[in-house]
Amino acid sequence: MKPKIFIDGEHGTTGLQIRSRMAGRADVALLSIPEAERRNAAMREDLLNSADVAILCLPDDASREAVAMLEGNNKVRIIDTSTAHRIAPDWAYGFAEMDKAQPAKIRDARLVANPGCYPTGAIGLIRPLRQAGILPEDYPVTVNAVSGYTGGGKQMIAQMEDPENPDPISSPNFLYGLTLKHKHVPEMQVHGLLDRAPIFSPSVGRFPQGMIVQVPLFLDRLAGDATLQTVHAALVAHYAGQSVVEVVPLEDSAKMSRIDAVELAGKDGMKLYVFGSPGGEQVNLVALLDNLGKGASGAAVQNMDLMLSA
User: Fold this and answer.
1) Fewest CB atoms within 10 Å of the CB: 34, 94, 135, 184?
2) CA 90, CA 95: separation in Å to the nearest integer?
3) Which pLDDT value is given to residue 41?
4) Dihedrals phi, psi of 48, to nearest 5 degrees
């Protein structure tokens, strides 16, 4: 019998992207709720409890409500794409490449928290250096990033695309999270294995999908006489043997004069770069991904496939 999948919030940005990735798949059966009934709590609860895997594409409070609807039903496995459970100890963190043991943790878990888009890039750069002993746990990490506007959901999409919107956004690029209290900071700190919260400065560009995440570092503040080459080698070693995250060779990075934020739009992989001058004092670590791909819907489908492989 095919496993039954219910996407709670299938009519939102992330849910629609998950559905598009699963279109035509013959190995699963999709349960669906009509858009007009999406607020029908009884129908939602019935579909949630009928599924083998429920993928929650909801705001935090609605995700907690959905999890409560499944209380006592241990047969339904959950992937939550909200921020509600990303640092909860009883939830597996759904970044399969984060650690060698992570795919098995996701495969065997009943509860999986899908990572945020910005944290996927940041943790993807930071954690390998922490585990290699190169980046001290108390290093004052800064994370600077730009995302496509679809990361803001239907409301921001309307603000960016509809000039008749009551609160239109005409800026080609804008910063937000100016109080430095962005909701993604806790998961960056916890899963980045950092002793102190990073300074996170996010921004949005006038392009639908794509993302660049940057983590600049001073080499003399790292451990073990770190160099451009040793930092790059640590990333290469961490991601050896898998295909979703690509560490771009140093010689290729050295030839580049710019990075296009939309290069991976519509794709579910992630590219990591290490930039700097040989013998220099600084490096800039860069992650390139699709905010709705590896940063959201693509990761959810990847996690679902791992869970179904158990």
Assistant:
1) 34
2) 15
3) 83
4) -60, -45
Residues 6+ apart with CB under 8 A from 293: 209, 264, 265, 266, 267, 268, 269, 299
Looking at residue 48, its pLDDT comes to 94
Q: CB of 287 within 8 A of CB of 121? A: yes
Task: Using 70 as the pLDDT threshold, list the residues of the chain that sit under it.
Answer: none
* Residue 57 annotated to the active site: no
- Residue closest to 267 by CA, chosen among 226, 218, 211: 211
Catalytic position from the list 31, 33, 96, 117: 117
Query: Rounded distance, CA 148 to CA 291, Å?
Result: 7
Q: What is the pLDDT of residue 37?
A: 79
Say if residues 26 and 53 touch (Cβ distance below 8 Å).
Answer: no
Q: What is the pLDDT of residues 38-58, one digit of tens each?
A: 778 889 899 999 999 999 999
pLDDT of residue 296: 97
pTM above 0.70, yes or no: yes
